[in-house]
Structures are given as structure tokens and as C-alpha cells.
């Protein structure tokens, strides 16, 4: 792998709240002949957005520290893997003849990002390790940009597009460390996002870890000795999710109300739109997931135009539009009281979208309440 690409590709982040449809968009971009689709990198590096500061350190860092970020075997993803409850977005074939297993832990870079690119992620991992070892000291954004440029060169692509589920909360970090970055913001009705989160292992795990952190006053998955934690204020139904006593069956049976995720979605949307709104308009495009479902060719053509005129590809639009299916959740199917609670929880986020003029192709907001 060459260590000096001729020109770094233009930064592009496909962002959104959790369960907004960005996974679909990432998969469709993967089919574009000129786009390198990087999936779930910053989600896994930050271990579900717990370790943001260490993944985006300030100042100049060396190659060894950058590789430590990429190769970290992080706690939350590790415990989910060891207990057989990893979300389906994890693509690395641990315990199926691959180099790393659930017991050894899987490096963050290998969980999804490299298997999304190749059928031999271990070999690509070794290539990257060798290349990164030769990186000069730099700020972390330049390290990532150099790495993504190398991968573009490796796979014969011109543009990289990173997409991590729920990464809207990282908009500020992206804008800081990638000053020229553009943002393709995938938007979905928050009530369907929240309902889908409540049924998704990754987001449910994030919710219980967050709840434990609030009651303990610290993140138990970052403690050197979780067994020393003061458990007096931890609710009994959360005790099975401490790292030293994790109970997979209890986790599968534990229910997190969709309305709780609705409140999270609203807060994520508020913070994300605040960060996006200060960027130049030509660097941000909002695309509704519902429009991709209802008008796939028109929506994909808009995305291609946002990428740049050189990425216009009618064959890709037609081929990708044929791959678009229908969603598996519908918040209107909930019982009446649950519907009302979820609707109320999402009201602030939907109002934020309406206030910023983020409307569907029809020009009408989705459930704006305004």
C-alpha cells in the first residue's frame, strides 16, 4: 500500500441519528464506482460514542498513537461479542476461522469498516498497520485523511464517505478536524427512529451503559476495577449489565421504552442541527429516508449531484433504486398510550427540523407539530 496518495479525497460524512436509514445509504454508496464507503468507523473507534476525546485528541500525535486508536479492542463491543449479542452491523467473522475471536477481542477497525470493503479484512488490516507505521507526526484529522486517501487509492476510488450510525452528535468534531468536510444528513421521522432503537441491541446497550453511568457517577466500562463500584444507587434491574456480572439473558429481556429513545432522538437532533446550521449551505444536504423509499431515483440523483458533477451516474441511480426496500417499523402500530408518549418525546426534535426548513420533497415537514 502506497504511503503518499497524490491528492486526498474530499471529506464526506453521511450522518444522522440512530436508525435513520444511513446504513441503507452507506450500502448504496458502496455500489458507486467512484465512492469508497467507510462504514461504522467512528462508532466503533469511540465504542458507541463513549471515547470521543481519545479518538479525536488535540495537538500533534505520532503514528504509534494513531494506530493505537485504530486497533483498540474496546470494552462495550467486546462484552457484547463475548455474550453473543453483537448487533448485525458487526461484520467481522469472529469465531468463524478469523484471526480474532470474541475472547481475544476484535480491533475496532476490523469490526465493520474493513469487512465492508473486502472479503479478507485481516490481510487489509495488516496492510494498513504497515502503512500507518510510516505516517509522519500530524494532527489527528490529517492522520484520518491520509488513511482514507490510502484506502481510496487501494480500491481505485476518488471520494471517501464515512457513515456511522447515530453520528450526528459528532458533527462538531467532524467539522473541527475535517475543516472542508461536507455532510449528507439522512433524516427520518424520529418516532420511527426511536421505535427502531428500542428494538436494536446496540442502542439498547448504549442506553443501559448510559443509565449505569448516571447512577454510578462514572462509566463502569471505563473503570479499571468495576467490582469496586459503589452500587448503592444502582437500580436492581441494571445490576446484570455491569461488566463484571453481565447477563446476556437479562439484557435480551430488558425493555427500554421507545419514548426514552424518542427523548434521546430529540436531543441528538437539536445538537446536530445546531452544529450543521453554522456550516456553509453548500456543504450540507438533508435527505429524508422516507423520500428515498418513496422516490428512490430522484433522491439518489440528488445525492449524486451533491457529491459533485463528476459523480453523476444514471446506471448507479437505477441499480441502487432497485435495491431500496421498505422499513420494518411503524410507530403508528404501537398501543395508543405508547404512541402518545413517543409522539410527545419526539415533538421537540421534529419542531427543530421544521424550524430549520428541513422538509420532504413535497415541501411538507414530517410530523412537525408546528
Explain this structure.
With 370 residues, this protein is α/β, with parallel strands linked by helices. It is built from 17 helices and seven strands. It has helices at 22-30, 41-45, 52-55, 63-71, 75-82, 108-111, 121-132, 140-155, 171-177, 190-198, 201-216, 248-253, 258-276, 289-294, 296-307, 314-321, 336-355, and strands spanning 12-15, 35-39, 60-61, 138-139, 159-163, 182-187, 284-288. The strands form two sheets. A five-stranded parallel β-sheet has the order 2-5-1-6-7, sandwiched between helices. The longest helix has 20 residues, at 336-355. The chain is globular, with a radius of gyration of 20 Å. The mean pLDDT is 94.
Task: Give me some keywords for this one.
370 residues, alpha/beta, five-stranded parallel sheet, two-stranded antiparallel ribbon, 7 strands, 46% helix, 8% strand, globular
The stretches of 5 or more residues where confidence is low (pLDDT under 50) are: none
Helix-strand string: EHEHHEHHHHEHEHEHHHHEHHHH
Main sheet: strands, sense, barrel: 5 strands, parallel
Task: Please tally the β strands and state the result.
Answer: 7
Number of helices: 17
As laid out across the biggest beta sheet, the strand order is 2-5-1-6-7
**How much strand content do the residues show?**
5-15%
> Strand pairing plus helix content: what structural class?
alpha/beta
Global mean pLDDT: 94
Gap from first CA to last CA: 53 Å
* Rg of Cα set: 20 Å
- Shape assignment: globular
Helix content: 40-55%
Amino acid at each position: 500500500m502506497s504511503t503518499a496518495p497524490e491528492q486526498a479525497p474530499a471529506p464526506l460524512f453521511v450522518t444522522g441519528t440512530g436508525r435513520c436509514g444511513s446504513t441503507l445509504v452507506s450500502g448504496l454508496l458502496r455500489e458507486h464506482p467512484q465512492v469508497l464507503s467507510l462504514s461504522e468507523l467512528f462508532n466503533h473507534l469511540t465504542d458507541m460514542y463513549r471515547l470521543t476525546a481519545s479518538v479525536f485528541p488535540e495537538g500533534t500525535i505520532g503514528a504509534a498513537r494513531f494506530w493505537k486508536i485504530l486497533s483498540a479492542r474496546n470494552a462495550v463491543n467486546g462484552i457484547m461479542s463475548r455474550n453473543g449479542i453483537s448487533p448485525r452491523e458487526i461484520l467481522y467473522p469472529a469465531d468463524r476461522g478469523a484471526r480474532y475471536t470474541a475472547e481475544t477481542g476484535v480491533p475496532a477497525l476490523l469490526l465493520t469498516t474493513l469487512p465492508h470493503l473486502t472479503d479478507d479484512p485481516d490481510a487489509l488490516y495488516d496492510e494498513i498497520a504497515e502503512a500507518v507505521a510510516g505516517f509522519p507526526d500530524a494532527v489527528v484529522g490529517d492522520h484520518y485523511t491520509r488513511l482514507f486517501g490510502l484506502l481510496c487509492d487501494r480500491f481505485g476510488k476518488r471520494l471517501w464517505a464515512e457513515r456511522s450510525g447515530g453520528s450526528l452528535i459528532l458533527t462538531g468534531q467532524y467539522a473541527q478536524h475535517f475543516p472542508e468536510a461536507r455532510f449528507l444528513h439522512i433524516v427520518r421521522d424520529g418516532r420511527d427512529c426511536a421505535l427502531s432503537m428500542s428494538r436494536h441491541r446496540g442502542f439498547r446497550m448504549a442506553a443501559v451503559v448510559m443509565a449505569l453511568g448516571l447512577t454510578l457517577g462514572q462509566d463502569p466500562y471505563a473503570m479499571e476495577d468495576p467490582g469496586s463500584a459503589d452500587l448503592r444507587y444502582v437500580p436492581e434491574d441494571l445490576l446484570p449489565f455491569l461488566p463484571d456480572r453481565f447477563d446476556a439473558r437479562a439484557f435480551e429481556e430488558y425493555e427500554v421504552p421507545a419514548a426514552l429513545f424518542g427523548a434521546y432522538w430529540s436531543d441528538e437532533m437539536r445538537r446536530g442541527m445546531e452544529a450543521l446550521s453554522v456550516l456553509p449551505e453548500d456543504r450540507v444536504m438533508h435527505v429524508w429516508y422516507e423520500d428515498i423509499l418513496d422516490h428512490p431515483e430522484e433522491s439518489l440523483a440528488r445525492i449524486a449531484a451533491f457529491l459533485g458533477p463528476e459523480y453523476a451516474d444514471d446506471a448507479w441511480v437505477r441499480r441502487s433504486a432497485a435495491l431500496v426496500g421498505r422499513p420494518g417499523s411503524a410507530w403508528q402500530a404501537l398501543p395508543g398510550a405508547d404512541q402518545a408518549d413517543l409522539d410527545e418525546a419526539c415533538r421537540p426534535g421534529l419542531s427543530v427540523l421544521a424550524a430549520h426548513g428541513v422538509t420532504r420533497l413535497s415541501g411538507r415537514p414530517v410530523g412537525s407539530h408546528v
